[in-house]
Amino acid sequence: MSAEAEYFSKDFEWETLRQEIENNPSYQYHLLPFTDTPSQQLEIQASEDSEAWKRFHHRHSSGKFFKERRYLLKEFPELVSCREFSKVLEVGCGNGSSVIPILRGNKDIIVYACDCSSETLERAKEIVHSSSIFAVQNRFHPFFCDFAFTGFPKWLVCDSCIESLSLKQQECSTDVKEGDVADKSGSYLSRECACCIGGVDFVSLIFTLSAVPLKKMSPAIMECFSVLKPGGLLLFRDYGLYDMTMLRFEQEKRVGFREYMRSDGTRSYFFCLDTVRDLFAGVGFIELELEYCCVKSLNRRKGKSMQRVWVHGKFQKPS
User: Which Pfam family name is an example for this entry (predicted)?
Assistant: First the structure.
């Protein structure tokens, strides 16, 4: 793997950065409590979020804005070592910057990818299908879904199969057994259950949850929990507290505690480890890994070093 695909996570210590930020008077407004928006107004704002992201993706439809996330397979090696025909649900796929390395890194994996922008999905299909990836037509399945507000479609896993999975029954097992049949995606459906694909083995939330309003995060994570098979993994990466981009927000851009809205109407939340831990544990996930990734990057044009903070997490649905 090339050097640009290497995975680094500890160029500096997050505690050192925290002390610097919290002792700097110019950053004090980021630390102040925030009065909640009245619930009625919150719902109006929430309904506008999807439209803001649709406009955002339309402006950046060339595909050059998002770079391919080649570090993902280093960060989440389970995507390479998993069994044949494992299914991944990539939530908030954008133009496919996370989908492409997953499909390229594992020729047997199947990716279902959703986004709240139909235009972005069309662009993702163009980019992925032009990438010369093995059997991509059978392994990449994009679909429209605004999961935080509408939930996932029932064809991912139906109500009866959710109940069966919660009871640890295998009525909707996608294990390859004698008598099973392959569907057009190359995955396997048991003869006794053709109502849905039976859930997924992985859910990836890569820079997606931070765009969801804070009060919608818990039900959104519950949606992810519901489509995972028992023992399945949720792979998480998102903006961390005191990331450089958080510190750039002006005070009037605050719309909540550690929550900001850009001038284009898109929002971003910056996570501390405790918040992530509480959100995922609150819906039933088991924490396997959770840490800050602290990386220094160089803006060559301006000659400035930038301190980036992301949160890396790996969570499992109980078997």
Answer: Methyltransf_23
